[in-house]
Design goal:
This protein is of the alpha+beta class and about 280 residues long. It is built from 10 helices and 9 strands. Helix content is about 40%, strand content about 20%. Helix 2 crosses helix 3 and helix 9 (about 215-230) packs antiparallel against helix 10 (about 235-250). The longest helix is centred in the N-terminal third of the chain and has 26 residues, at about 75-100.
Length: about 280
């Protein structure tokens, strides 16, 4: 959802989100990215879209490289390999886009530092990224930059899939545009049955930072899990836009994006309707 502040200031939505499933639901991947608001990031919206696209492709390749054989899938190996694969593909996509569309005079002027862009043009596309791949009973996740990612267990408990990053202080964030992007990712994997995971929730900081309490996002993940059980996934999906809009309006005014990954066969569906603003 484009943030209310972005609408007011005529700035584009710098978030991007995407997902794919395949092989009759044997694998699923989702990704969410948040382009930087820094003045040098004049193409942050494009950088975020490219990040989501390459993340979905890279995650799918991890499955296809195994010939679609679940017993060959090694979550730990994929968690180790996926960050470098994403970072490499994103950089190649950025350079291809830049070659086809060189910086315009207005972009260079708007950056406030044309020399810096000339020295490191990838900065213009700077973005964060969260990727979650579910396949063969495993959940593989990797993240660079801010935003947040939690998993909800079958008993309603909430856990984190990745360690905290003490470099993310205030508005400071790691970035795909960094020369150390591959090593700046946090990554990991868990076995779904062993951890009793039923839902994974990932969001950009425009949603996460809208909560006044430190545990606001984890509580929201639990609330979403309850609603999916009570009223069904389709009703929750239909209410997401209004939740995000009210969240942005009442919170930071930033773009707000949320993505949910779950096995629908485990969840009860219902024709009930979610009231607007429940999680706003």
């Amino acid at each position: 959802m484009r943030g209310t502040a972005h609408v007011r200031e005529a700035r584009p939505n710098q978030d991007a989100v995407g997902w794919r499933t395949g092989d009759a639901g044997r694998w699923a991947v989702t990704a969410v990215a948040d382009g930087h608001g820094h003045s040098l990031a004049v193409r942050a919206d494009t950088g975020a879209r490219l990040a989501v696209d390459v993340a979905l492709d890279a995650a799918r390749s991890c499955w296809e490289d195994l010939g679609g054989e679940a017993d060959r899938f090694a979550g730990g190996a994929v968690a180790d390999e996926l960050p470098a694969a994403v970072a490499t593909r994103w950089l190649a996509s950025v350079r291809q886009h830049l070659a086809a569309s060189p910086f315009s005079p207005s972009e260079l002027e708007g950056s406030g530092n044309a020399e810096a862009l000339a020295a490191h043009p990838e900065t213009a596309y700077g973005t964060t990224l969260i990727v979650v791949l579910a396949v063969a009973g495993s959940v593989v996740s990797c993240q660079i930059g801010d935003g947040d990612l939690v998993a909800v267990r079958r008993d309603g408990g909430v856990c984190r899939l990745l360690p905290a990053d003490n470099r993310l202080v205030g508005t400071k964030t790691t970035s795909l545009a960094s020369r150390t992007a591959s090593s700046d990712f946090r990554s990991g994997h868990v076995e779904v049955d062993e951890a009793a995971i039923e839902l994974v929730v990932a969001a950009t900081d425009g949603y996460v930072n809208s909560f006044s309490a430190d545990d606001g996002f984890t509580a929201a993940g639990r609330d979403i899990w309850k609603l999916i059980h009570e009223v069904g996934p389709s009703s929750v999906e239909g209410a997401l836009a209004s939740w995000l809009e009210s969240t942005s309006s009442d919170g930071t005014g930033d773009d707000a994006s949320l993505t949910l990954l779950f096995d629908e066969s485990d969840l009860a569906d219902s024709a009930a309707t979610v009231s607007e603003g429940t999680l706003g």
